[in-house]
Amino acid sequence: MSPVEKRDLYTAGRDPLWPRSDGDRYESRSPRQDDQVPAARPSSHRPPGILLTVATVLLLSTGCGLGKQTVASTPTSVEPAPPPTSTTEPTATPTPSREDPYEPNDSIMQAYGPLMPAQEYRAYITAKDDLDLYYFEIESPQTVEITLQELPAGTDYDLYLVTGEEDTLASSCSSGEAEERIEYTTSSVGVFYILVLPFHNFSEVEPYALQLRFSPAPTPSGSDSYEPNDTFGEAEGPVAFDLPYQSYVWDEGDIDIYLLEVDRSGIVTVDLTNIPKVADLDLFLYDEAGEALASSTTVLGHEHIEQRLEPGTYYVTVRSFAGFSRNEPYTLQLALAGP
Prior knowledge:
single chain, 339 residues, mainly beta, Jelly Rolls, 4-stranded antiparallel beta sheet, elongated
């Protein structure tokens, strides 16, 4: 994927953990609702347990060639051939022994766990379509640190933190055998899932090392002063042009909606900057009827929309594609030029 543009999975309906192809290192993306009027707290309704499972079918076929038929001649007496000289059969290369105690764990329903903090889990990726899923539980908001280390030589595995609905919360997709690491602070409690996914190659004999650690979630330093603004009816505004608005995506389901009144025709620009490093926030523009007019969904820390608008009422929406922060505010600013 281009570093400037990410795949638009908001309406594509793809599985959030669709494997990347070699040479196409795009980030795992969760499915999003169609660009209609946002609900107060949208959530996925797909049933759990439908993570990628790849069935490998081997078709074995044989063929025999038939030569031209000939008339058999009368057999003559032939001395029996001497028995073949005994030869030593080559010794087969022994298959290295291994034990993967966490299999089967290829889906949400089969996830191994609960994982214990500070304990090391060693397991194997045994095929290019092998997925390893684990789960852990938390009873209060925590900062979760997940590390994937000691990747086998010549492999490249990726690491994901997902929900039971298979929405991606965070990911780590370093190149080659480099360590994968996720640090994520969650506002919710319950069950979370870890996915180890092969991007390139695998090893049946060399394990990886997975470890989970918890630390208390930091006390929020921000104040989400525009809440509630999660629906069009609750939208903050009307916002003014050329003034910065700072706010927070407060948790996994938070949506921030702003009301915009345009009194003359012109080019409206909307910029979303200072996006927290732990988050991937996206930007949308809707008309008064809730129809999507434009969007910006890059993987960079700056989202930008430029759209010619006629006088009327519009809405600007900030959504989290992955991650959030209660300590680092984003900045939203609008401008109008024209006619």
